[in-house]
Structure formats: structure tokens, C-alpha cells
Amino acid sequence: MITEVVLPTSVGRARLLVGNVKGARGLLVLGHGAGTGARTPDLELIADGIDGVAIVRMEQPWVVSGRQIAPAAHLLDEAWLEVLRKRNSWLPAAAAALPLILGGRSTGARVACRTALPLGARGVLALSFPLHAPKKTNRRRDNELEIVLEAGLPLHVVQGDKDGFGTPDEFNGVDITVVPGRGHELLRSRDDEHAAIVQGAVRDFATRVLSLE
Known about the structure:
Blueprint: E1 3-9, E2 12-18, E3 26-31, H1 41-47, E4 53-59, H2 61-64, H3 73-85, H4 93-96, E5 100-105, H5 107-115, E6 123-127, H6 142-150, E7 155-160, E8 175-179, H7 195-210
Parallel strand pairs: 3-4, 3-5, 5-6, 6-7, 7-8
Antiparallel strand pairs: 1-2, 2-4
């Protein structure tokens, strides 16, 4: 069962989609992309559950308020940080204290990378990481990935091999799962033929980072 929680932030109200936390041994919080909310097929699939992991999706205030365009990066980070720093106000105390993995798709993955250190994350999961804008390969965002890597935190990217925002072979020194034949939209539905690849990559990463085996 998913519980919806709406929280005020300094940039507007954020919405949390909170999965089952009972018996969890780790917490995975996921952000969404710049053109979507938190109900895309890949995020919905992950929210179906990973044994031992409580999964939360956060919708940014711009989505909750019905706006069509995401605000500047620092405002996304600000809302994300505020919500996660007060997670003991919307999670049971035991769940709020669980080891934390940050993640997201596209812009949400960038936010996760930029905020991993101040939030004390154990690792970062990046779905469809936008390494560069389409056809602008000279303006790369390796620096955001390097925040995580240089801190010695585990980082895993799940990327379509036809993603115009960066194909798997464009990434340097990053653990990566390739989704064949897919672009920036990893899955077309939750029962997509490649769903098992995405779900398996997320499960394996979370299990390794949280030492659940």
C-alpha cells in the first residue's frame, strides 16, 4: 500500500509516495525527471518493492502545483534537502533512521548526486542520467557523478543504449546496467519486456549497498 504525504517546503508543497516500511532494513528515496512526476513506469516498477527496502518517491513542488516547467537546480535541491532532513516527521522513527540510498530518474538522479553527501547517503542510483543535453556532448555533467565517486560512495547508472542524453559508452568509470534498445524512457510500462533488467539492477544495487544478504 502506498501512503501519500504532502509536506510544506520553502519552495512549495512536496508530495511523498511512501511504500511499506514495516521490517525494512534500508530506505531508498527516488526523485523524478524534469518533464514528469513520480509515476513513470520505471519508478512505479521499483516502488512495487524490494525485499528489506522501504521505498519512497518524492514529487517536487513544481509538479504538485501543476506547473509544466521545472525550476532552477538549486530550488530542486532545496526542496529535496528540506524534506529528507525532516524525514522523522513523516516516517516512523525506526524507518527514518534506516541507512539511506538516494536515487531518481533523469533530473532526479542529478539531484540525488548533488545532495548525497549532505544527506549522508550510502549510495546513489541513477536512472537515465542526463550526461549532456541531446547533441551537446561538449557540455557534460560528469562533475555531478564525480561528487559521489570521489566521496567513495557506490554509484550505479541504469541507462538505455539509445539515450540521446548519454549512451552507456559515454560514461567513464561508472558501474552501469544497459537497457537494450531504449532511449531516455527506460520502460514503456511496468510489464515492459525490459522490466526485469531494471528491477534486477535496482535490487542488486540496494542489496549490495545495504548488505541485505
